[in-house]
Structure formats: C-alpha cells, structure tokens
Amino acid sequence: MxxxxxxxxxxxxxxxxxxxxxxxxxxxKNIGTGLLSSYKNQQKSLQALGIEFxxxxxxxxxxxxxxxxxxxxxxxxxxxxxxGKKVVIWxxxxxxxxxxxxxxxxxxxxxxxxxLTYAYGLADLVFCPSEYTKSLLVAYGLPSEKxxxxxxxxxxNLFYRDQKKREVGRAxxxxxxxxxxxxxxxxxxxxxxxxxxxxxxxPEHQFMWFGKIYSSLMAKPLPKNLPANVKFTGFxxxxxxxxxxxxxxxxxxxxxxxxxxxxxxxxxxxxxxVRDIPTYQGWLRDGENxxxxxxxxxxxxxxxxxxxxxxxxxxxxxxxxILAQQNSIDFLxxxxxxxxxxxxxx
Length: 346
Hints:
The chain is of the alpha/beta class. It is built from 13 helices and twelve strands.
C-alpha cells in the first residue's frame, strides 16, 4: 500500500481522452504531442496516488476528467452532471494556440473560442497548464475560482541524461560536434522560420528538429530547399535518445500553454533557449534557468553565448534540473490529491 492509499481509497475517476481508443488508437499513433504526454502523466499520477480510474465512462465514477472536450466528451459531461458527478477538464487547447496548428484553423478562431468557452464552462474545475492559460480563460469570461494553474508535469523516469542514449541518437542521425535542436510538431507556430534563419547563421553546427511532420493538406509544408545543416526527422520512437543527442535546446514557438518539451529538456540537463512570450513569465527566468530571445539576432546571440560560456551553460543546466524536479509528476501528486479531495468535499 502506498503513502496515499489511506486518503484516496474509495475515489474513482473516469479519465477520458476522446478518440484515444478509436480504431486501436490510430489517431494518436506517431504524434508525440504534449496532450498525449499529459494524458499519460495523469494515468501515472492516479496510479501513484492509489486512485482507481477507468478510461471508459462508468456511473460509479466520482469524477469525470476530460482531456479534450469534443462532442462525445460534451455528451459524457452532461450525463455525469445529471448523475451529480464532478467534472474536471484539462485546458490543453485555447483558441490562441489552436489558431496556428492547421492552416485552416485561423478561419474558425471565433468559433473555436466560443466553443471552448462553453465546454470549459461546463466543468466544476478546469486545470490550466500555466497562469498564462488561466488568464486567457478568464478573458474568455470563465470564473477564475474554477480555474487552477497546474503544470502538466514531467516524468523523470522517462526523461533523464543517458550517455548510451546520446550515442545511439547521434549515431542514428550521423551527428557530430555541437548540435542545436528542438522537439515538437513541425508547424509554423513552433517557430520554424526562426529555426531555419538561425541555422543559416551557424553553418558549422547541425540543427535537428525532432517531431511529426503533417501533410501539406493540413499544415504549411516545409521549404523545399532546406539549409544543408538542417534535418527534420519526423516522429521518433525514442524521444529520450533524441533529447540526449542535442547540446543546446531551442524552442522558438510563438504560442504555448506551457510547453512540456521545455521541462523534458530541462530534465535531460540541456541549456534552453526560448522565445520571450507571456506563457513563460514567472517560471522561466532569463539568465537563470533559460535564455530568452525575441528576434533572430537575439537567438543568434544566445547560441553564441552557450557555445562559448561553459559557466553559463552549467548554471542553466543546474537550475533547469531543479525546475524539472519541481514540476515532476511525483512532486505535483500531493497537491493534485488535495485538489481532488477539495472538489469532492464541495
């Protein structure tokens, strides 16, 4: 019996991710999104807390926990509420970040915003991956008292420094020397333009982008003529090996709700460069656990500093690991349990 069982026994949660089991999980294979990572983290947290959970709806559940509030999820939410059950939704999606995923999303921005406002408004509690996401939902008109900023967390058992994985990752892609890399969907919102411009400024270094590449029918395609020192791998099975193959992690995304890959890179022990955007305020500190930049020239200066200043690199690495530990799912579990208990006691 683990340390939480005495206070979590008897609670049952329906942990639901729409379409996750559809056609054997076909729609979620070879994607590697933060949504999927968060869902798996939730499973591990509930297991560690000793909370029974089901991935299918059952009327004996005390809490319905939704990850993507699409149409079937709305049906389940209304069914659960009729039975007097509590409803929790993770706000993985906002209209702001959805707008730039697929090329056509921008035309539906007002509709997406209206729909999410309605869907999140049905919940008794909405987990927001960051204070920034919480501020967006408050601006949508949702009451702040039902919104809780709760990190998606990072699984330190999956993301860690490993010399063997580094050797495997670098051998697989014939990497040598200093590698500047990132992990994420290869879509414009993630900052592909900045990544390519930066690669042109450092022809002596290799630039690696690990992550799914969508069809041109869905997202703007990559340029036909990439710089010789740039490689987009597509989906990778061993993401820990991919992280370990990198020397400097750059994440030039224009819009995020948290950016789980930042915590994952920090857990690996990589120095991190991010775009200076609102979602990082308060937890990413320039010069302490990361470097921040806005324009390509600033990104260039950040790479130069990390390539030449070992003391700065070690400082960012050390503080990044502390950040990852503070946002590990093990560290967050006690707070998560208290939130569930408080919700059920209302």
